[in-house]
Amino acid sequence: MSSYRSADPTRTYYVYNAAWSFLAALSFTLNLVYYVRDAGLDPLQMVLVGTTLELTCFLFEIPTGIVADLYSRRLSIVIGFVLIGAGLLLQGLVPAFLAILAAQVLWGVGYTFTSGADRAWITDEIGTERVGGVFVRTQQFELAAKIAGTVTAGGLGLISLPLPMVISGAGTMLLGVLLALFMREQNFHRTPREERETFRQLADTFKHGLTVARRRPVVRTLVVISLIAGLSSEAFDRLWSVRLLTFSFPTVFGTSDPALWFTALALAGTALSLAASLLLNRFSAERLQASHPTGILATLAALDVLGMFLFAFAGNFWLALTALWLRQIADTVSIPIHSGWLNRHVDSRSRATVLSMVSQANAIGQVVGGPPLGALGRTSLRGALLASALIWLPIPALYLRLKDARSTTEKQAV
Predict the structure, then answer these.
(1) Most buried residue among 13, 67, 71, 145 by CB atoms closer than 10 A?
(2) Taking the CB of residue 160, how many other CB atoms lie within 10 A of it?
(3) How far, in Å, CA of 288 to CA of 277, rounded?
(4) pLDDT digit string, tens, across residues 200-233
């Protein structure tokens, strides 16, 4: 079998990332519609699906990383795609709550096998000098493949809602098999024990992060923002589809099938977000690259919460769509600004700690906040959406508070 493994690593990386981007879009464009229409999930069950996935990823990230660190990046990636495919296939074939929960566990464990392993593999194979350009080029392939997958999902969804998921699941498993045959791995070296991630390291990182947060108000505020975002977003990100399906969809091309509209929603949201990002880069580049872009982050967070409130109160389909697009644009534009700012102004000694703390806070928020809001959604869907918006409400003020405090915190050392 090793004779098959002669494919160029860079080309392999491009192809498999584009293929996965296509397959992911194929599966996730209409999965929320499928959960509501075919599987009949209620708001609490919808949120528990997301919570199960989030908790699985959080718990298995370190144990599955042992495979990539000790045995093989390729093996870890192959196992991951086979498990992800099995999860997608299961949820498409069995429209029942318990089966969908089991699918989240499979997909979540599979994801943790691939998380980080693919970038580590390509870096090992081609070197750190070339890998930056490869990552940029890969993103372009992924975007094109995502658009193609979204359109394909819409077409297949008009035939049958589970069909895109079933094809995606089978295709992802096949991708894993093909990678086992053709993926070359010549420069793998076991990760030294002191560099491996462990639960003890996770706990130490958390403790060190608390120390950093106590000494630096900026870090403390960012962790609080991430926690609040997690508390709010898990329920809203799952329940907006339930709310949208309560409206009467306009008839276009002789059909009012939700599959068509959810596909159009995804495509238009991507296009609008891209346009907004390009416009900001052209006319407000100095603000995006500012040393402390807290003002624009506060503005985007305010637009985010405005979109959430508008969506909760929307009385017609078009206002609801506008609110969703407003929130998607605000989210999409803010992510790279926030990431760039954080990486520029957290010193190298504490950067990994801060990034890990921010990520952990968001995950904890999603796991803690999702189920209670999902339970509220059983009795009042609008109430759950409004509660999500209210939880998000302090974030703009927290960003502005960072603006006032920055001159003091910059002088403090970790």
Answers:
(1) 13
(2) 14
(3) 10
(4) 665 665 666 667 666 767 777 888 888 999 899 8
Q: 367: how many CB neighbours lie within 10 A of its CB?
A: 18
Q: How far apart are CA 363 and CA 382, in angstroms?
A: 24
Q: Copy the structure tokens of residue 322.
A: 């506008």
The structure tokens 């995950």 sit at 363
256 φ/ψ angles, rounded to the nearest 5 degrees? -120, 25
Return d(Cα 255, Cα 251) in angstroms, integer.
Answer: 5
Here the tokens at position 185 are 């791995």
**Reported pTM:** 0.78
Quick one: tokens of 53? 């996935």
DSSP, residue by residue, 70-86: HT-HHHHHHHHHHHHHH
Which one is predicted more confidently, 30 or 405?
Answer: 30
Give SS3 for 42: coil
Give whichever of 159-163, 348-352, 410-414 has the largest mean pLDDT. 159-163
Do the Cβ atoms of 118 and 77 come closer than 8 Å? yes
pLDDT tens per residue across span 50-101: 889 888 888 887 676 667 667 778 888 899 999 999 999 999 999 999 999 9
Contact between 69 and 303 under an 8 Å Cβ cutoff? The reply is no
Name the residue with tokens 């997608």.
88
- φ, ψ of residue 255 in degrees (nearest 5): -145, 150
Residue 72: what pLDDT? 79
Helix and strand counts by DSSP (H, E) for the chain: 17, 0
CA distance 400 to 67: 43
